[in-house]
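task queued by scheduler; priority normal; single chain, no ligands, no partner chains; default sampling; output format set to structure tokens
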Amino acid sequence: MLSIVFAFLAVFAAILICIFRFGPKLPPETDAIIDDVFNNDLPEFVSGQTGFAESDGLQIWYESIAPDGTPKGTVLLIMSHAGSGLEWPPKFIRLFVHAGYRVIRYDHRGTGMSDWVENWSRQNPYLIADMAGDALAVLDALQIEQLHIVGLSLGGMVAQELATRVPERVLSLTLMMTSGNISDPDLPSLTSRFLLVSALKGLPLLKYRMAGGEKNLIKERIAKVISVVGTENLDIRETAEVVLYEMRKRRGFNIRAVFQHQAAASMAGSRYEKLKTLHAPTLVIHGTADQVIPVEHGRKLVDILPNAKGLWLDGVEHIFPYPNMSRVNETIMAHLIESGS
């Protein structure tokens, strides 16, 4: 019995050491930048037309961001697992707006300013099809007849479901790090080893959560970005401002959405047969080192979709923004132009 207690204490001590001694090192200017953000007014990250669309009894928040002049087209951005619309990097949104496109982003159910689902259980879940209904409700509320759709990870699954439901409204699809059937038995899946490694990598970030307070939550987000993409695409000030904006002017982060969206994806089943009938020009972007949704899922999408092409990012994991965003941005923009307005 005593040996079990000592073993438990040893494991507990190891966890504490991992939490407080390891993890990504924040750039030396981080504290000064965060302090400066706190000492100045927050920029307005929501500047477009906002509103709520009703979907399945829920209110879904959206924002429509217009370019200068007459839009050449509309782009709908569908965020990944448990992410609100504000998690799209502002630079990525500006890419489309500066090119003359109207950009629509929205909060998934369970995130941001959209309704958080209170009566959810694994016996009473919502599915990817329901989440696609939320996106469709936004399009209907804004009276958008044709558009380009960009979906990231789980957002790519929602994008597929939406596109097969209203193919006549889809000018193009851009599917990033996603799958047509996350449970496909013939393809590699998320491994228990990767889950363990990810959990160990995430332990050092807990020190910020345990310390609490707005500044530490900002540091947690910065450390998380560094842990997956390094500092190449890191804008400390913008990251701090977005996190603080989400906490002070919106509803913050809903941990329950993590489990709800994971269940929606795992219970969705295959979209392969529907996708075989979808002729919208499609760009599939996938990292070859992705261990969350292995690249074989992206390659199968290209094989199944009648009018698809792939952009394979060598050595890139399940991350966004990507290490070489300039190349990705150029490819996406060319894809939209080729697909028409």
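post-processing summary
- The chain has one domain: 49-206+245-339.
- Confidence is low (pLDDT under 50) at residues 5-22, 192-200.
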